[in-house]
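A reminder from the course coordinator: this example appears on the midterm review sheet, so study it carefully.

Given structure:
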């Protein structure tokens, strides 16, 4: 089944936005000077020369210097943090087949506040009796390969308030699916984050952590023929097929205001972001 960009999604984009974009440029996100230690030219040359491992930082969305975002570089992931909503704008990571397993599990580890971001910031007390799970963006199970990575996955700058039925249900299923894809294909570049409707937002705790109305996840595979896929999940319980959440990357960009995979050569970016063949991903 082939899914292509849908013009009518622009209407949805008009009613959706990321809260983090409020402090931005009002237009397309700006490109940062460096991308995780590499730059666009290096990434382009790597892909054009047929490299199976493009330049470091290919998973990073375009940086937005004027938005006030704080970039947090961790062992397993990079996060863009928003001080207004006490949440990440996005979390991006490169998941390799080797990183889908490891000896460092989550047992005994608790979420903790991230002292690298200014107060007020999310704390465990904000979530207590809130009715929401502490929902990982970069999953704990993607960080079992390193003790430091596992500990960092439990920072609140890698978490959002998430309905339990989603966190333990369909969201957990797509996390597991991404690990299966990484094992099958060799690696994935993944970005995940919250989405907010226009208008007022529910907040929890003394620090007024904003509750997202939805979440996105996008994945890029550069093994063999490049391909990408996007997903949008409302922050509600449900039990639906993975394909029912699928969107093109272009659609997710219109809804979130983010620019994913900007380090790709323009022709590759256009091709992988505008269409999805579900059979490429083993979905129906």
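Designed residues:
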């Amino acid at each position: 089944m082939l899914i292509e960009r849908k013009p009518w999604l622009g209407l949805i984009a008009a009613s959706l936005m990321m809260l983090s974009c409020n402090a931005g440029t009002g237009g397309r996100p700006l490109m940062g000077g460096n991308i995780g230690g590499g730059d666009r030219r290096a990434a382009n040359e790597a892909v054009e020369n047929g490299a199976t491992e493009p330049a470091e930082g290919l998973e990073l969305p375009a940086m937005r210097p004027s938005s006030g975002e704080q970039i947090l570089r961790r062992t397993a992931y990079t996060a863009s943090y928003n001080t207004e909503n006490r949440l990440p704008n996005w979390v991006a990571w490169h998941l390799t087949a080797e990183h889908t397993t490891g000896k460092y599990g989550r047992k005994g580890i608790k979420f903790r506040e991230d002292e690298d971001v200014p107060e007020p910031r999310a704390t465990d007390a904000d979530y207590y009796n809130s009715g929401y799970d502490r929902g990982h963006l970069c999953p704990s199970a993607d960080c079992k390969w390193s003790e430091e990575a596992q500990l960092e996955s439990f920072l609140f700058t890698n978490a959002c308030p998430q309905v339990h039925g989603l966190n333990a249900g369909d969201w957990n299923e797509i996390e597991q699916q991404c690990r299966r894809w990484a094992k099958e294909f060799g690696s994935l570049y993944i970005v995940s984050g919250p989405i907010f409707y226009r208008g007022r937002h529910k907040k929890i705790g003394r620090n007024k952590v904003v509750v997202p109305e939805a979440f996105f996840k996008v994945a890029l595979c550069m093994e063999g023929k490049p391909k990408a896929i996007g997903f949008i999940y409302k922050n509600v319980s449900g039990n639906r097929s993975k394909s029912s959440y699928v969107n093109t990357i272009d659609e997710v960009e219109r809804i979130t205001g983010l620019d994913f995979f900007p380090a790709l050569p323009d022709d590759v970016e256009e091709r992988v972001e505008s269409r999805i063949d579900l059979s490429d991903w083993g979905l129906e």
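Residues 12 and 255 are 7 Å apart (CA to CA). Helices lie at 9-15, 40-48, 124-127, 147-152, 164-167, 170-185, 249-256, 266-274.
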